[in-house]
Amino acid sequence: MTITTASRLAHTGEYYFSRKLRELAALNAAGANIISLGIGSPDLPPHPSVVAALAATAGQPGAHGYQSYQGTPALRQAMAGFYQKSYGVVLDPATEVLPLAGSKEGLMHLGMTFLEAGDAVLIPNPGYPTYRAVAEICGAEVREYDLTAATGWLPDLAALARTDLSRVKMMLVNYPHMPTGTPASPAFLQQLVEFAAAHGIMLVHDNPYGFVLNETPPTSLLSIPGAKEVALELNSLSKSHNLAGWRVGMLVGRADWLTEVLRFKSNMDSGMFLGTQQAAVAALALGDDWFAELNATYRTRRELVVALLRALGGAPAPGQVGLFIWAAVPPAYADGYALSDAVLAEARVFLTPGGIFGSNGLGYIRASLCQPESVLREALERVETMQKERHAARREAAYVQQ
């Protein structure tokens, strides 16, 4: 018997990191001892109060049943309070906040709610690969907009406005940007809102990185005048609160659009475990000292990762925000794939090739900060040893040629 897959998967492969992590696991099983600086999965624990809230709720006999599709009132209120405290954005917790099992889930909910064949979606190049996957699975046309170092990794909205946008229903934006770490100013976000309003486009802002190594106050797109008319924002506790595996995110913004998303979402899940929701409430109540401690750790790690990339001849740009460092590939390598392969083979360190994020990322490499300082020091030592051995080999080859 032959059962064919649905046509919606024709252009969608397995997620890159799903395949790569399996490859690295096989290498480690064979004794390779790979240091992975690939994904941005925080290795640091949540705050003790968060774990305590989970444990306390899990011990309650009545805590284990199905929960509301919209999340508990306490969680929605905590999310709204977080937005007001962090961004100065006032949200109605009853209508403008929708808790999610992670913001990645929210991307698919948005696509399945609003996109279909005949629609077009603007996605960044480079950008999070899931943006493209969602659009393709939903049958929409993918239209890339270029982000390059020359434009500061910001889209040229004037150039986009000169194209035919008549079928564009949605534009996905992500600042601070992954993978480049670029923040966006309020002035640029205002331009985005005006662009979307002028062309009747729904803006979806993916905003999980604003609290990590950000030297300016975190910004929500919804803080921009007029944004609530044209935008929804995804946010997450994965990076900011070390809850990646707990899967807690949120979709906030325009109430009538959230109602439509809930119509789809309520057919796909049965609510989030109450213990996870109570833990999220505790996490969202943490003060500035939590972020100060978190970022002190990441600053030390950033110095080591920058040193590693420079040892390879890479050129990390200053001012990057988030859990990664993005660096141009040195001329000795054809692209980020070639550099990643060489470092994996010779130093047993995995770095993410920038090409997985789009063609504009081919000349770049990305390294994660989600390893302990001791592991990062070992990774740096391995790379330095690799470079010394390469240098010695070149000297030997030159001597033989003489």
- Specify the biggest β-sheet: 7 strands, mixed
- Please tell me the overall pLDDT: 94
Low-confidence stretches: none
Radius of gyration: 22 Å
Q: Which quaternary structure do these chains form?
A: single chain
Total number of helices: 13
Number of strands: 12
Q: Cα distance, first to last residue? A: 66 Å
Q: From the helix content, strand content and strand pairing, which structural class follows?
A: alpha/beta
Strand order of the largest sheet: 2-8-7-6-5-3-4
Q: Hey, roughly how much beta strand do the residues contain?
A: 5-15%
Specify the overall morphology. Answer: globular
Explain the overall architecture:
With 402 residues, the chain is of the alpha/beta class. Helix 2 packs antiparallel against helix 10, helix 3 (73-87) runs parallel beside helix 10 and helix 4 (103-114) packs across helix 9. The N and C termini lie far apart (66 Å). The mean pLDDT is 94. It has 13 helices and twelve strands.
